[in-house]
Amino acid sequence: MPRGRIRAKLRRSNLYTFCLRPRTAEEDEPHSFDGPGYSRIVHCNQPQMHSRKPLKYASNYISTTKYNVISFLPKAMFEQFRRVANLYFLLAACLSLSDIAPFSAVSMIAPLAFVVGLSMAKEALEDWRRFMQDVKVNSRKASVHMGGGVFNKMPWQRIRVGDVVKVEKDQFFPADLLLLSSSYEDGICYVETMNLDGETNLKVKRSLEVTLPLADDMAFKDFTGTIRCEDPNPSLYTFVGNFEYDRQVYPLDPSQILLRDSKLRNTAYVYGIVIFTGHDSKVMQNSTKSPSKRSRIERKMDYIIYVLFTVLVLLSVISSMGFAIKTKYQMPDWWYLRPDEADSMYDPKRSSVAAAIHLVTALILYGYLIPISLYVSIEVVKVLQAMFINQDIQMYDEESGTPAQARTSNLNEELGQVDTILSDKTGTLTCNQMDFLKCSIAGTAYGTRSSEVELAAAKQMAQESEDSHDKCMSDLGPSEIELETVVTSKDHRDQKPPIKGFSFEDSRLMDGNWTKEPNADVILLFFRILAVCHTAIPELNEETGTIAYEAESPDEGAFLVAAREFGFEFSKRTQSSVFVRERYPSAGSPIEREFRLLNLLDFTSKRKRMSVVVRDGDGQILVLCKGADSIIFERLAKNGRMFEEATTKHLNEYGEAGLRTLALAYRKLEESEYVAWNNEFLKAKTSIGADRDTMLEQVADMIEKDLILVGATAVEDKLQKGVPQCIDKLAQAGLKIWVLTGDKMETAINIGFACSLLRQGMKQICISSVNNDAKEAVKENIAMQMTNSAQMIKLEKDPHAAFALIIDGKSLTYALEDDMKNQFLNLAVDCASVICCRVSPKQKALVTRLVKEGTGKTTLAIGDGANDVGMIQEADIGVGISGVEGMQAIMASDFAIAQFRFLERLLVVHGHWCYKRIAQMICYFFYKNIAFGLTLFYFEAFASFSGQSIYDDWYMLLFNVLLTSLPVISLGVFEQDVSSEVCLQFPALYQQGPRNLFFDWYRIFGWMGNGLYTSLVIFFPSIIMFHHEAFRNDGQTADMSAVGTVMFTCIIWAVNCQIALTMSHFAWIQHLFVWGSVATWYLFLLVYGMFSPVISGNAFKLLVEALAPAPVYWFATILVTVACILPYLVHISFQRTFHPMDHHIIQEIKYYRKDVEDQHMWTRERSKARQETKIGFSARVDAKIRHMRMRLQTRKNNTGTQAARPAPSQPHQ
């Protein structure tokens, strides 16, 4: 604490001119609000008054679960029975209790109870995991005033409205608070809102002056007050309220509000009053309830069930009509059935009633057309798939010890059908760690180390040149293409430990060598601007003696670390001075210089620059300025543009390398000039009125002009490991990538270059709103911009041209309105990449909804903060990054990964596998159930539509449960058309999912047709062979049980051989399940036949005595099985030979080991198996190679022209 008290003496508010301003007379007046929306009353330090109505507010407990103890049963039952098949089987199970059912009640109810129970158990388990993560958040501790000036730790969930809370440095705010005081004597505190809006710059908050004396625990002993304010709402940037304290009323605004899930930075502690708790807090108001998501395949399954149900009803109607005809016209002749004494089910005189009753019997009998076990098999398969995702070592982050996590298994196959990815920036693509990497001083570029973007691009270009552009490269020659290499000595780097925020390498500036440079005086000024022009505070670590900097932005921190490493260490700040320790090679010890801080013009997003007016040790007054290059360059003096051309060239290079740049400049002032300006500045600063900001800007412009350019900085916003490569691979897989960020446009564009979402030569369409108060005029202007941009894209003739759409949050507000959103979407879809800046959490969700509903394709949203929860829940698939900034994104997500780069494997490998597995599994399920169910119908017709089943009840019960379930589960869990390595090498394979090649209606009806064919081949040859023929030694013909068992044997063999042909990847477990299922059938038949006839019925010793000794039984099994699988075998042979799919070719190459023996062919195939893309490194490399080819062609043309030109005639001598 002693350091905190020392720091507290500094009045931080003096550092700000634009961020903090005095209140106007109107603003000092209390807000007057009546009516709805402003009814909240908070009694400060009296939380007990909010425990009863009408002031009973929400608790601070939050829940992100789908169910609770009360709602689980009804909601989970609804989830299960909104599946059409389950609803049908529920009806069938109820009817099975009646006399008209062809099967026993147990055989209908038991499978349904098992299927629904297992699915509900899975839902409960997944929701329990969400609940445990909620518990983790709700159990965080905060210091709360217990009365008498005593503060104790208390779980977040027990915090109430009206509580006084003490939050310490680097802690999250547990609720929405009114700031009362801080460790700084003027009530300033710094807040990091990255978790809310994605912005990395710290926000400055300031308490009311009247509460500044509440600076320690005991001050709250008798503290009371009342807050009257707006009701809970989702607006993060507004707040209206009044604070009644000490018989006075003070107006409140957003600058005094600390929002839940933002973090306290650079401030030892703050005190605050809880205003909004739990789901009333603004961040939770921005979130939506956990939606119930279903995959496209599952939704399509419902339509297939409708088709099968239609077939089922049709067959049942045919059966009932047939039964009615038989009953009316043939029943009277069947005297042995005693038609004169028949009940209504068989009464020839009431054939219509008999038909109606038989219709119900038929609906139950043919129920095997609709596979009840399909759902439970899919549930089992998806849970096992999720386990493999969770245990994938390639998606395990060693640094944090975090594995991937499939938080729900319902959407596994949806991972393989993603069309558009909507990504957050800060914390998702970037680490929010800035490293000083390069600089340009006096027109000379310094810094030899390459950025991550340059490294990855060089590596990619080298690989591309080796792979598919060998000829082009050889034509160009080595001098034509220079892949940037990194000149760093590993030995040197190993000797020097890495410095956070400083990755600069260049011996010309390090260790005092800058003094030998030609423009040493300019370099000196450059270093001093870095060390002096900022608002940071140095903090001495008394144990190590080192100084750490508490800066408002990571960029500013990186500049100070760079200045220190160059020998200019910012060591101390007082109310009026900045002290810098300067080290020179000639001096033995550092020289401490004082710079008197006369004025500070702080940075704002509107100004895009920051300046300090200082007096150096020689009495010279200097204006030191840093800002965006476009802003600085327009303020340069005529004699200050000496280095402009060279610096501009370097800035372009840095931008291409994905670096964030700032320009540095200065100006010398005469004493009289400064005095005159300062008088104007003080007049503007102390003015109170609506035009104060305008006056300040005008005065600032007066001094921030006629600057002399010094140089530029290039800072690398460290991308998360592997992000550029991941984006490149996803682009090659045909995925579109949108970035939605709360950051300003310049930052987002820099990151766009860093990730290769943007590149040089790409045409940027920037849509921004003009400063016009008329809403209609602004809206019309934005519509015009979009229309012109769409027209420009339409008229573009170059097939390789790429467009990038960049739009800010204000413009997006209009673009998302109903009458403009389709125009915006059409424009965005035509662009190669889309970046939305300054967007709120609500806008992120709205953009996601627009893309999802407007394109009708699968969307995936990925983010790491509470500001991403809306879009994560809105997207078809939500992926959370398990970063350091809270757990909200994880709790709202469907899948969680530790790094963005793991998204590549999650989609391209697991998504591809899961989609194909589930699609093939469902098609096969319908095939086998149609093949099985239709044989029941054929026998019905054969047996006068009597409702008699040809199969034993136990056969039918075990068909889906045991005899055919394990092979289909092994298909869904272990099938691999290609290995994971090949998936990553051939990313275009992923497009089989978005194009839905394995689950379109053509393929579904093809499998259904195969099932129809199989049922015909199984039934009729079996009937023909066994109907009138003796098949036992004593001349006996086959009875119904024998024929039924023969047919069932053929079905078991046919469907298991069919699935064996479907599989591409065989391991021992597939062999065990497929052939083990066939063996299990014979084993069951043997064991079942040994039971007493009371249990086994007509199957008593059927295999041992009747079927096994009969050669025709074995002959029929082989003949029918071969006939069943022959058409599929012919089909896949024809397809692989004449119309092979991508994975067929790869399988063949791998089988014949061509990938090892013929590397050139393998490389060529890899190059072809890539979606044409206009983003990513590959697109950047392709563009560069096209550019080189054009240069080569131009050079050849010029050479040819010169050769064709006649030589000048020589003069006669």
Automatic annotation (TrEMBL):
Keyword annotations from UniProtKB, A to Z: ATP-binding, Isopeptide bond, Magnesium, Membrane, Metal-binding, Nucleotide-binding, Translocase, Transmembrane, Transmembrane helix, Ubl conjugation
EC number: 7.6.2.1
Reaction catalysed by this enzyme: ATP + H2O + phospholipidSide 1 = ADP + phosphate + phospholipidSide 2
Domain P-type ATPase N-terminal, chain residue ranges per copy: 42-109
Subcellular location: Membrane
One Pfam family, short name: PhoLip_ATPase_C
Record-listed Mg(2+) binding positions: 424, 426, 864, 868
Membrane spanning residue stretches: 303-325, 353-378, 925-942, 954-974, 1004-1028, 1040-1061, 1073-1091, 1111-1130
Active-site residue list: 424
CDD domains: P-type_ATPase_APLT_Dnf-like
Keyword Kinase part of the UniProt annotation: no
GO annotation, biological process: phospholipid translocation
Residue sites binding ATP per the record: 424-426, 556, 603, 626, 660, 741-743, 838, 844, 867-868
GO cellular component, one term: plasma membrane
Membrane protein topology class: Multi-pass membrane protein
Cofactor(s) in the UniProt record: Mg(2+)
Family named by the database record: Belongs to the cation transport ATPase (P-type) (TC 3.A.3) family. Type IV subfamily.
Stated name of the protein: Phospholipid-transporting ATPase
GO molecular function (one): ATP binding
Domain spans labelled P-type ATPase C-terminal: 891-1140
Region spans: Disordered: 1193-1213
NCBIfam families the record matches: ATPase-Plipid, ATPase_P-type
InterPro entries in UniProt: ATPase_P-typ_cyto_dom_N, ATPase_P-typ_P_site, ATPase_P-typ_TM_dom_sf, ATPase_P-typ_transduc_dom_A_sf, HAD-like_sf, HAD_sf, P-type_ATPase_IV, P-type_ATPase_N
Claim: Ribosomal protein is one of the keywords in the record: no
Principal location class: membrane
